[in-house]
Amino acid sequence: MQPPTGVQRYAYEMCKALCKCGTDFTLICPKKGVIDKAYDVSLFNIKRYGIGASHLWEQLVLPFFFLGKRDYVLINFTGLGSIAVPNKITTVHDLSFLVCRQWFSRAYYCFYKPMTWLAVKTSKHLITVSEFSKSEILRLYTFLHEDRIHVIYNAADNDKFKPASTFTKNDFPYCLSVSSLDPRKNFSRLLEAFKDVEGCKLLIVGGANKVFSQNQDLKQSENIEFLGRVSDEELIRLYQGAEAFLFPSLYEGFGLPVVEAMCVGCPVIASDIPVLREVCGDAAIYFNPNDSDDMRNKIHSYLDDKQRLKPIMTEKGKENVMRFSWKSSAQKLIKLLNTL
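Now predict its structure.
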């Protein structure tokens, strides 16, 4: 199991929530697969099966596990799943590689375009993480009927992502952004917008990923600092101490970091794109992600009036995230499974 990013976190938290709901399931892993230490899997019933790893194991080895079995459903939370296994539910988080292929490497695009089509075509049902992503799936795979697609939202772990119990004064005021450093996350415009901001730093959490066509060569200013990947504990501390959370993405399936930020009481300033309007509602300040001047103006306006705006945005965020919980997401999946 890979280190926790958005997709992996969805899989892990859904499995945890299913356990808490009393659902009996088996997590199937390669015999020599390594589970990252960030995950507590003590509650999971884990079955190790077969040689190999990654896509080769998933497509060529895992199907043999189901030979002779009838009473099962294979659920894949991170995409694709075994094409040869007919009784399955597949999660499609987003279709960004089809929407803008130049964001991704040629190898990634050439593999995932046919394989995702096959996964979608051969699945009994699809899960996706927003109404926006559902509309994109229906737009790009016109053979699908909407009844086969089920929206099951992301959420934040409310036991971990919560406001600080005590106030700690920061060494300096800062805004925070969290994401992988790839083109669709739009950091080049954010850095352009933030370089002239005075009296506040920008801290960026996240690392590069080889699946993207270019991991941006982002130039730092004195008030901008890249922290790389951090632990959940450090991430939560950073959310708690931030003046605001900035999310400049051009395209998302959901946008989990905005929910995490709101859960800890951090105001959100984000791209004005359909999925973030769906997820954030009126609990965020929006900017045009294609206009660094508009980003700069919205950030400046907030920081200049943060004594008034921060408590207002914090309260709106807390109200907004009550719509999302892993328990309710797991219950939606259980309801779907009961229909099969």
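The two ends are 28 Å apart (CA to CA).
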